[in-house]
Specification:
By secondary structure, the protein is an alpha/beta fold. The chain folds into two domains: 132 residues, 3-Layer(aba) Sandwich (Rossmann fold); 73 residues, no CATH class. The chain is built from ten helices and five strands. A five-stranded parallel sheet has the order 2-1-3-4-5, sandwiched between helices. The protein is globular and about 55 Å long. The protein binds iron/sulfur cluster (3 copies). The site of one iron/sulfur cluster has 14 residues, from α7.
Length: 231
């Protein structure tokens, strides 16, 4: 069987998504039986070859990185945005922490992206699912559930009912509601779910006396965070 030639590249990032992949340990070794990893800065691998699949972590913060992502696209058959930095330029986090003045462009401002893995960091199970599909020549399809659907199945106590903000009702699932399981509200790192009703969500927050963050009102005006779609 032809081994997929894979490169993992970093732009401006904390490399937390790559750490999620490395944390797979034995299961990553199983993946490596089926792929030929030719580039990964963290592992000291560097070959500027053409690749079947390029995983790109991080956002574009300079003209040099804009050139770099175009160059990577030029020698990749499939390009995957790895994590929230790459697919949304960390729009939510940048706003929440008041750092919206820094340049933090998502990579699809410069190149076509075939797939993206959501989250900050990515979910390692979802990475395995995607790479397995690619190894078998299949298209990857991400979860269409919201975080709420996963949270309810896990029988977590709802944070909204306790008066805390949680974006689970409008956020795409796939993370097994991990923040809620750790008693923290979802901050929406996986982007908007399909066909979510933001107005109704805002109304329900008001009815519970939870203050509405300004970025939620901003979402009513147009496409929100993580609006690009996996095919
Ligand atoms: S998405 Fe989050 S974990 Fe991944 S590189 Fe960006 S900041 Fe780090
Ligand atoms: S805690 Fe959040 S994700 Fe869980 S059910 Fe309530 S709103 Fe939904
Ligand atoms: S619960 Fe929300 S913030 Fe936490 S990982 Fe899932 S999508 Fe991201």
């Amino acid at each position: 069987m032809h081994k997929l030639k894979v490169g993992i590249y970093s732009l401006s990032s904390c490399e937390g998504c790559i750490v999620q992949i490395l944390n797979l340990e034995e299961r990553l070794l199983e993946v490596l039986n089926h792929v030929d990893l030719v580039e990964c800065r963290v592992l000291g691998l560097k070959h500027d070859d053409e690749v079947d699949v390029a995983f790109v972590e991080g956002f574009v913060s300079s003209d040099e990185e804009a050139t770099k992502i175009k160059e990577i696209r030029g020698r990749s058959r499939i390009l995957i945005a790895l994590g929230d930095c790459a697919y949304s330029g960390m729009r939510f986090v940048a706003k929440d922490f008041g750092t919206s003045t820094i340049r933090a462009d998502p990579i699809n401002m410069y190149v076509n992206v075939d797939y993206h893995l959501r989250g900050c960091p990515i979910d390692s199970e979802e990475f395995l699912s995607l790479i397995s599909d690619l190894i078998h020549g299949k298209k990857f399809k991400e979860s269409s559930k919201t975080v709420c659907s996963e949270c309810i199945l896990l029988e977590n106590k709802c944070l909204l009912d306790k008066g805390f903000l949680c974006l689970g009702p409008i956020t795409r699932g796939g993370c097994n509601a991990i923040c809620i399981a750790n008693n923290k509200g979802c901050f929406g790192c996986r982007g908007l779910g399909d066909d979510v009703n933001i107005s109704a969500f805002i109304e329900s927050l008001k009815s519970k006396g939870i203050s509405i963050p300004s970025y939620l009102l901003g979402l009513l005006k147009g496409p929100g965070y993580g609006s690009s779609q996996n095919s």
